[in-house]
Design brief:
This protein has 352 residues and is α/β, with parallel strands linked by helices. The chain has a single domain, classed as NAD(P)-binding Rossmann-like Domain (Rossmann fold). It is built from 16 helices and eight strands. The two termini are 23 Å apart. Bound molecules: NADP nicotinamide-adenine-dinucleotide phosphate.
Length: 352
């Protein structure tokens, strides 16, 4: 579908449906990027549903401890655990997943919420452009590495497990540049320092949110329908949070800062309102699980994704990005290949 800017503005002025609730007793929920903003608010909602374990994964221990104490204080829930992961560092992600394999047990709900916005090229220690690594590569890496724990949980439960990837309506308004779409290694092209001029970095965050939608759909294409695991993308809506923290470091009367402040004043929901979308993606729509698979949640219901994603070019791009993502992640962890082998199948549509 084509979603106009006006349609998104109308969404922002709509009444946000109340938070979905579910019985999470005996279940494990993992929220990545949970110390502030939408992930923090979603964690509080999950805590109120009393899961057996709620793991909040944060990159900064001190901030994580403050968040954990706040979750306990506000909800009275005492099963919250703080684990450390930095998505800008592949080794941190693989260490995290190794620890999860040893100590995490089965995983029923994974919410991949962490993301950054950055308008200037900054490579990570792994050599990838930061937004691309945090928002897409590491998000995909952790999601794939945790598939065995998610499937194990789904097999023992009456409801399939869920992977929720937090995307954005911005995916409607971006298509890859021609050079990127034509490339056999689009991620490498996108990450290349020469490509990452300020003009191209303007759209980097939007591109990463499109990659999130493509990942959810590509993964769903490769999960057999009997696998008790559903992957869902979600738009939390435009919310007050720390996502645009860099704008608030600009001089008080700069155009960028005033524009963001004005936009937020006119349109933004609270992070709590945004978090309800994540919760719906994680526990909602159980009456029609098949519908939720590869779904895109907006305002507490499923809506169609961008026309580009549904187009032939979009599907071709999706498969190219999937193959490149797996190639890259195979170089990061020797656990990716066996997971792809054991849990995923090659869909007909991947033959370009
Ligand atoms: N806010 C919006 O208007 C909006 C709109 C559409 C979609 N979204 C999406 O909603 C999600 C949540 O964003 P938000 O608005 O709540 O932003 P936020 O307040 O900035 O929260 C982002 C979270 O991700 C964490 N994070 C960032 N980089 C990380 C890394 N390298 N490793 C581990 N964690 C990392 C942050 O930790 P630190 O505090 O340590 O940085 C923070 O906990 C994102 O996926 C975003 O793209 C937001």
């Amino acid at each position: 579908m084509k979603k106009s800017l006006l349609a998104s503005v109308i969404d922002q002025w709509s009444v946000v449906p109340p938070v979905e609730t579910a019985d999470l007793s005996g279940k494990t929920v993992l929220v990545v990027g949970a110390n502030v903003g939408i992930g923090f608010e979603a964690s509080k909602h999950f805590a109120r549903m009393q899961p057996a374990r709620l793991i909040i994964a944060c990159r900064n221990e001190a901030k994580g401890k403050v968040a954990l104490a706040e979750i306990e204080r506000e909800t009275g829930y005492n099963g919250c655990e703080l684990w450390i992961v930095d998505l800008a560092n592949f080794a941190s992600v693989t260490t995290f997943s190794d620890k999860f394999k040893r100590e995490g047990g089965d995983l029923h709900i994974l919410v991949m919420n962490a993301a950054i916005v950055q308008l200037v090229y900054q490579p990570t220690a792994d050599g990838w452009e930061s937004v691309l690594q945090v928002n897409h590569l590491a998000t995909s890496l952790l999601s794939l590495l945790l598939i065995p724990q998610l499937v194990a949980a789904g097999e023992k439960s009456s409801t399939p497990s869920r992977i929720v990837i937090v995307s954005s309506d911005l995916h409607y308004w971006i298509t890859p540049a021609k050079e990127v779409e034509a490339s056999t290694t689009p991620l490498e092209t996108l990450s290349n320092e020469e490509w990452c001029i300020p003009e191209h970095m303007q759209s980097r965050y939007n591109e990463s949110k499109l990659l999130n939608v493509l990942f959810v759909r590509a993964l769903t294409d490769r999960l057999q329908s009997i696998t008790p695991l559903s992957a869902v993308a979600v738009n939390p809506g435009y919310c007050y949070s720390q996502l645009r923290r860099d704008w608030y470091k600009k001089p008080t009367f700069s155009f960028a800062r005033i524009a963001v402040a004005l936009n937020e004043r006119l349109l933004a929901w609270t992070a709590e309102q945004g978090s309800r979308q994540l919760v719906f993606a994680a526990v909602g729509g159980r009456d029609n699980e098949d519908n939720m698979k590869a779904g895109y949640v907006n305002l507490g219901r499923l809506i169609e994704v961008a026309d580009f994603v549904l187009s032939d070019e979009g599907r071709k791009f999706q498969n190219t990005v999937w193959n490149e993502t797996i190639d890259i992640l195979n170089g990061v962890s020797d656990k990716i290949a066996p997971i792809v082998q054991d849990y995923l199948v090659v869909p007909d549509s991947s033959i370009n």
